[in-house]
Amino acid sequence: MIIPSRLEIANLPTPLQKVKYDNKSFFIKRDDFTGLEFSGNKIRKLEYLLYDAKKKGAKYVITCGGEQSNHARATVAAAASIGLKSKVLLWGNDRKTADGNLFLNKVFGAEIRYINKKEFLNVDELLMEEKETLLGKGINSYLIPEGGSSSLGIWGYIKFLEELMPQVKTKIDGILTASGSGGTSAGLLIAAKLFKINIKVFAVNVLYEKNKLKNRILSLAENCIREFNLKLTINENDLEIIEGYSEEGYKNITKEKISVINEVAQQTGILLDPTYTGKAFFAYNEQFLNNSKSNIIFVHTGGLFGVFAKRKNYLDALNG
Ligand SMILES: Cc1ncc(COP(=O)(O)O)c(C=O)c1O
Predict the structure, then answer these.
(1) Catalytic residue selected from 5, 25, 39, 69
(2) Tell me, what's the pLDDT at 207?
(3) Which atom of ligand 1 lies closest to the CA of 71?
(4) Which end of the chain has fewer beta carbons closer than 10 Å to its terminal beta carbon, N or C?
(5) Residue 151 in contact with residue 223, Cβ under 8 Å?
(6) Where does residue 169 rank: exposed (0-12), middle (13-18), buried (19+ CB within 10 A)?
(7) Looking at domain 16-38+151-318, which CATH architecture does it have?
(8) Do domains 16-38+151-318 and 43-148 have the same CATH topology?
(9) pLDDT tens digits for 172-227?
(10) What's 43-148's CATH class?
C-alpha cells in the first residue's frame, strides 16, 4: 500500500460534538472547524493535492466549481497560504456586489473565468485549455478537478475516519454527509474497509442524481484502490444515497429547509449552509433522528460563507 504525503494546513483534529436538537441527541463531527479561510471538508483533500502541486513545481493551481463554490474558495485561500497563484472557472456570473465565496475568491486574489451551465458540463476540457495557455507562457500549473475529488484528494476522508474513531465512545452504525462531487463519501467507503470498521456511508445527493452520484463515488473509490495498491474490495451495499432532498436544485433551497436551519441555529448555536449541510441535516433529521436512529454521525462539512449569498432566504424564513 502506498500512503501519500500531505501538507499540514488544516486545523485537525476537528471536534466531535454531542448536540441536542428538538430533544434528540446526536453527534456532529465539526469539519466546519478545519480553519477559517479553509473551513469545511475541502481542505482535507487539498492537504494532499497541494503537497503534490508543490512537489511538481507548480506555480498556479487551476480548479472549478459553482459561483459559490466552497471548494474553489478553499483552494484559492490554501494556495495563497503556500505562495501559489490560482485560476478558477466558476459556473455563474460576475456580480458588482460579490458575496460569500465569490467575494472571498476576489479577496484572495484568484483569477476568475465565468462559464455557463452548458460549458460546465465540459469543464475538464476547459481546465486543460487553461493549463495549456499557462504552459504557453512558460508557467507550470496543477489541475484540481471538481470538488478536489480525485484518487489523491479522497485520502483526506480516509484520514478523517482514522481521526474520528478514537473520538467515538459508543458503537456507531454509520456516517452521513452531503455529497456533491462524491469524494468525501468515496474516501469514507475506502476508510471503513481499510480500518475494518463496520459502518455504512450515507450520502445526501445535492448535485447529481442518485445513480450518477453512486457511480461517481464507486469509481472514485475503485480508482484510488488501484492507484494506491490497496488490498481491499468495496461493497456497494455499504453506500446508501439518500435522495429527494435537493429537488429545488443545487443553487436553491426551500423555505421549509431554511426554517429548520434557523431552528438548529437557535437551539444549538450551530450554523448550517444552504447548499450542502442544511439539506443533509434536513434529511438526517427526517430519516434518522425522527426514527431515533441517532447512532449515525452527522458530518458538518462547512460551506458557511454560502449563507451570506442567501441572506434574503434566511430572513424571509425568520419572518414567516
Ligand atoms: C460544504 C460542503 N459540503 C459537502 C460537500 C460535498 O463534498 P464532495 O464534493 O466531496 O461530495 C461540499 C463540496 O462540494 C461542500 O462544499
Answers:
(1) 69
(2) 94
(3) 16
(4) C
(5) yes
(6) exposed
(7) 3-Layer(aba) Sandwich (3.40)
(8) yes
(9) 999 999 999 999 999 999 999 999 999 999 999 999 999 999 999 999 999 999 99
(10) alpha beta
pLDDT in tens, 16-66: 999 999 999 999 999 999 999 999 999 999 999 999 999 999 999 999 999
Long-range interactions of 119-126: CB distance < 8 A, separation 24+: 119/91, 120/64, 120/89, 120/91, 123/64, 123/89, 123/91, 126/64, 126/89
The answer to whether the CB of 187 is under 6 A from ligand 1 is no
Helix%, strand%, coil% for the chain, nearest 5: 45, 20, 35
Domain coordinates in residue numbering, the chain: 16-38+151-318, 43-148
Q: Which atom of ligand 1 is nearest to the CA of 207?
A: 14
Q: How confident is the model at residue 97 (pLDDT cuts 50, 70, 90)?
A: confident
Query: CB within 8 A of 121, min separation 6: which ones?
Result: none
Q: What are the φ and ψ backbone dihedral angles of 75, each rounded to 5 degrees?
A: -65, -45
Q: Is 39 in the pocket of ligand 1 (CB under 6 A)?
A: no
Mean pLDDT for 92-110 is 92
Residue 26 has, within 13 A of its CA and on its CB side, a CA count of: 29
User: 137 CA distance to ligand 1 centroid (A)?
Assistant: 33
Q: Does ligand 1 have an atom closer than 6 angstroms to the CB of 149? A: yes
Measure Cα distances from 113 to 86, 106, 275, 280, 299 in Å: 11, 12, 22, 30, 31
Angstrom distance (rounded) from CA 112 to CA 102? 9
Half-sphere CA count of 124, side-chain side, radius 13 A: 5
Mutate to test the pocket of ligand 1, among 184, 205, 305 (most ligand atoms within 8 A of CB): 184
Kindly report the pTM of this predicted structure. 0.96
The verdict on the CB of residue 181 being under 6 Å from ligand 1 is: yes
- pLDDT tens, residue by residue, 214-241: 999 999 999 999 999 999 999 999 999 9
CB 90 within 8 A of CB 114: yes
Distance between CA atoms of 47 and 70, rounded to whole angstroms?
15
Residue 69 designated active-site: yes
